[in-house]
Write a structure and sequence with these properties.
Layout lengths: L3 E5 L3 H13 L3 E5 L2 H10 L4 E5 L7 H11 L5 E5 L4 H9 L4 E4 L4 H11 L4 E5 L3 H13 L3 E5 L2 H10 L4 E5 L7 H10 L6 E5 L13 E4 L4 H11 L4 H4 L1
């Protein structure tokens, strides 16, 4: 699954040159030339990382970043600037901006900032046991991952197919659209997202889950982190 990056810069040549370089490296990129245009794009579909110039016509980049966080609290935004705007930058960083790039910057600086913005990948937990899901999300956040919560099977499928999730933690006991049904649906859709399955008992259809990691509740949260780390290893998704 290609990472989606939004570049926001009123300098069209600079924005498009960054877009070209990232596309050559396999990223899916969109470009906006104002904070308002960027917000419209962000509201329509999520991005893994946004690269936002501070000085923009109309809504400045820091205000646009704050609006992004209202839409998606986990939004990862890297601020960039060619000006001395320490107060604005400090405000963005204090409120969770993933990094700062000072123009002109090298491609290596950009790639380092992108890597730092996704230290552990985005992991979504889905299931009827919201206490378990929240506990899992909190523990994953403490160990460097960017967790999200899918409240049911439909949200889990949407997260896998369109919201940029890197890994799903699926409870086999999800009602209506069960964890097993989600697993099989994603296979039919050709979605290679890795999964960690959890269950209160041994699964009834082990042959359909032979390649998946299954954790039986209750289990040590450390085992969950290890399972997610294994799931995110290169090549795991292709084997699923």
């Amino acid at each position: 699954m290609s990472e989606r990056v939004l570049i926001v810069d009123d300098d069209k040549d600079h924005a498009e040159s960054i877009a070209d370089l990232l596309q050559l490296r396999g990223f899916e990129v969109e470009v906006a030339y104002s904070g308002e245009q960027a917000l419209q794009l962000f509201q329509k579909a999520p991005f893994d990382v946004s690269i936002m110039d501070v000085k923009l016509p109309g809504m400045n980049g820091v205000d646009a970043f704050f609006e992004f966080r209202k839409v998606r609290p986990q939004a990862q935004v890297i601020m960039m600037t060619g000006l001395s705007v320490e107060q604005l930058i400090a405000s963005a960083v204090a409120n969770g901006a993933a990094g700062v790039l000072h123009k002109p910057f090298a491609m290596s600086d950009l790639m380092n900032a992108l890597n730092a913005a996704r230290p552990g990948g985005l992991v979504l937990a889905g299931g009827p046991d919201q206490t378990f899901a929240q506990t899992a999300a909190d523990f994953l956040a403490e160990t460097g991952y960017r967790p999200g919560l899918a409240r049911n099977g439909e949200e889990s499928v949407r997260a896998a197919l369109s919201q940029g999730a890197d890994c799903l933690i699926l409870d086999l006991g999800i009602p209506i659209l069960s964890g097993l049904e989600i697993h099989m649906k994603l296979r039919r859709e050709g979605c290679p997202i890795p999964k960690v399955l959890v269950s209160s008992c041994d699964p009834e259809n082990p042959e359909q889950l032979a390649r998946e990691q299954i954790l039986i509740k209750p289990f040590d949260p450390v085992l969950l982190v290890d399972a997610v780390r294994t799931a995110l290893e290169p090549g795991h998704a292709r084997a699923a």
